[in-house]
Amino acid sequence: xxxxxxxxxxxxxxxxxxxxxxxxxxxxxxxxxxxxxxxxxxxxxxxxxxxxxxxxxxxxxxxxxxxxxxxxxxxxxxxxxxxxxxxxxxxxxxxxxxxxxxxxxxxxxxxxxxxxxxxxxxxxxxxxxxxxxxxxxxxxxxxxxxxxxxxxxxxxxxxxxxxxxxxxxxxxxxxxxxxxxxxxxxxxxxxxxxxxxxxxxxxxxxxxxxxxxxxxxxxxxxxxxxxxxxxxxxxxxxxxxxxxxxxxxxxxxxxxxxxxxxxxxxxxxxxxxxxxxxxxxxxxxxxxxxxxxxxxxxxxxxxxxxxxxxxxxxxxxxxxxxxxxxxxxxxxxxxxxxxxxxxxxxxxxxxxxxxxxxxxxxxxxxxxxxxxxxxxxxxxxxxxxxxxxxxxxxxxxxxxxxxxxxxxxxxxxxxxxxxxxxxxxxxxxxxxxxxxxxxxxxxxxxxxxxxxxxxxxxxxxxxxxxxxxxxxxxxxxxxxxxxxxxxxxxxxxxxxxxxxxxxxxxxxxxxxxxxxxxxxxxxxxxxxxxxxxxxxxxxxxxxxxxxxxxxxxxxxxxxxxxxxxxxxxxxxxxxxxxxxxxxxxxxxxxxxxxxxxxxxxxxxxxxxxxxxxxxxxxxxxxxxxxxxxxxxxxxxxxxxxxxxxxxxxxxxxxxxxxxxxxxxxxxxxxxxx
Length: 673
Description:
Elements: H1 3-9, E1 13-20, H2 42-50, E2 73-85, E3 91-106, E4 115-116, E5 122-123, E6 132-133, E7 149-150, E8 155-156, E9 169-186, E10 192-209, E11 224-244, E12 253-269, H3 273-276, E13 283-290, E14 293-296, E15 306-308, E16 316-317, E17 323-341, E18 344-355, E19 359-371, E20 376-387, H4 391-395, E21 398-403, E22 410-415, H5 421-425, E23 434-448, E24 451-468, E25 472-473, H6 476-481, E26 493-495, E27 497-518, E28 521-539, H7 546-554, E29 559-569, E30 572-581, E31 584-585, E32 594-595, E33 598-610, E34 613-620, E35 664-671
Parallel strand pairs: 7-13, 22-26
Antiparallel strand pairs: 1-2, 2-3, 3-9, 4-5, 6-8, 9-10, 10-11, 11-12, 12-17, 13-14, 13-15, 16-21, 17-18, 18-19, 19-20, 20-23, 21-22, 23-24, 24-27, 25-26, 27-28, 28-29, 29-30, 30-33, 31-32, 33-34, 34-35
C-alpha cells in the first residue's frame, strides 16, 4: 500500500450525527392530534334538529362536521451531517436528511337531505345525494334510445351509504430526501476548491377516505388512492476562490467562480381508475315511460331532464394524466470583491444561465460598503434576478372540490397546464421566466461597543410574475364548445399558472442588538422592525381579480416587529420573543374586512442537565392570541345559531400571519453526541 493511501485510510474522522424524531409513525408513540377552531355548519345543526336519531352519525360527532385547524400528523425526521478530515488538510463531507410525514385533512361536509332550521333558512342537499336512475333504455322500449334512462322509482341514493352525510378525509404521505457529497481543499498555490453533488426528492402520495365517486353509483368505492406527485432535483457544482494580491488595493482581490449543472424533474403518477373515472351515471337523459312506450321527461320549461352526477372521487379527483417533465440548466458565475481603499469595499458579480426550455440569461450584481467613521458604515447593492418556470408549474394537472367564498355551495376546481385545451380555452399562453431588479441601501451604526444598529431600505421589482390565475366559471355552453370541460362540470372553475402581473415591493428593515450584564448573567436584546409594501404595477384583468391585487398588497402585514430577550446564567437560559403583526386583509375570502394588529409572546426556559443534554419547557403564543373573528357582512354571512360562516369558519381559514391555533406548550429534551 502506498504512503498516500495509508495516510488517507488512517485519517481522523470528524463526524456529527443529529437524529430528530417527532410524532413518529408508530401508533405506540406520540402523535400530533387534530386542532379544531371552528363551529359546526348551520346545515349540520339543522339536520341534527330535523333528524335527531341520525345526529350521532354526523361526521366527527359531537364536534363540528368539518374541522378547521391543524390536521393530525405522524412523522419521522432524520438528519446526518459529517465530514472526514484528511492529513493533507482536504475534507470529504456529507449531509443528508430524510422525513416521512403522514397527515390527513378534513374536507367540506356533504349534506344528505334538504333541511330547514328554526329561523326558516333552508339548506339544500349536496348533489351527490340526488337520486340515480338505475333502469337504462333497452331495445324493448320505443322512444327510449341507448344512453337514456327511465324515470321511475327504481333509484339509488347515497343516503343508504352515508345517512347523515359525509366529510371526506384527505390523506397524504410526504417523503422528503436530500443528500449531498463534496470534497474541498486548497491547492499548493493557495486556490480553494469545492466539488459537490446533491440529489433531492420530495413526493406526496394522496388518498381519499370517507368519500365516493357519484358517477359510479352503487358500485362506487368509499376509499380511493388518488395518485402521487414527485419532484426530483440533481445538482453538480464546482466552486473555486483565490485571494489575488494586486498592488494598489488595500486588500487582496477575492476572486471566485464556479460552474453548475441542474436537472429538475416533475412527475404525476396515476391514481386508481375509480378515483378519476366518469361513470355511467355522470349524465342521464331521462324518459317517462307508459308500458314500453317512452317520451323524453321534460322540466317546467319544456327541456329534457338530464340527471347528472359529478365524476371522480368527491373532494379531490384522482390523477388521470401521467406526467414526466424535466428541465436541465447550466450556469457559470464569477465574483470579485476587494477593499479598493482602507474604508471602501467594492464587489462585482455576474452569472450566466442557460435553460433548455427558455434560453439564456445574464445576471449581475454590484455592491459597495463605505466606512465613513469608526461608528458609521454605508452600504448598497444593485442586482438583477431570473426565475424560470418549474416543470411542475408548467405541467401540473389536478381536480378538487372547493366552496364559493361566503356560501356553502361546493364546486369542482381544476388546475390545468397552460398547454392544455382547457387552459387555452380561457386564454392561457406559454409561461415565460420572471425577471427582477433589486436595489438596497443602508447604514450600520456601532455607537457603543455592545450596540449594533442596521437600517436598510430596498426596492424589488418583479416582472412577469408567475402565479395562479383567477378561477374561470364553467358553464354548460362552455362544455358544449369544449367537451374536455365536462370533467370539471357546469358551475365548476378552472385555473392555471400564468405570468399574470408585475409587482414592485418597497420596504425598510431596522435591526438593533445590544448586550449587557444583568446581575450575575448576560442579557442579549434584539429589536427588529420591517415595513413592507407590494404594489401591482401591471396586470392582465383576464387572469387576476381586484381582490387578488388587494391581497398582494395587504395579505402579509405591512408592519412587523420582533423583540427578543435572551438571558444566560451558567447552565440556565431564558428566551422571550414578543412578536407584532400589523393589520392585514384577505379580500378574496372576506372582502371589506380589515383584521386588526396583534401581539404574540413566545417563551423558552432551558437548563443543561448534563454536559451534552439540555432540557427545556416553553410555549409559543403563550397568552393565547387569536386573529379577529370573521365579521358578518353582505358578502360573508355569520349565522347567530352557530357563530360561524356557512362552512363553519370562525377565524380566517388561512389562519392569518400567525395562525388560529392559539397557545402551544412543549417540553424538549436535546442531546448532542
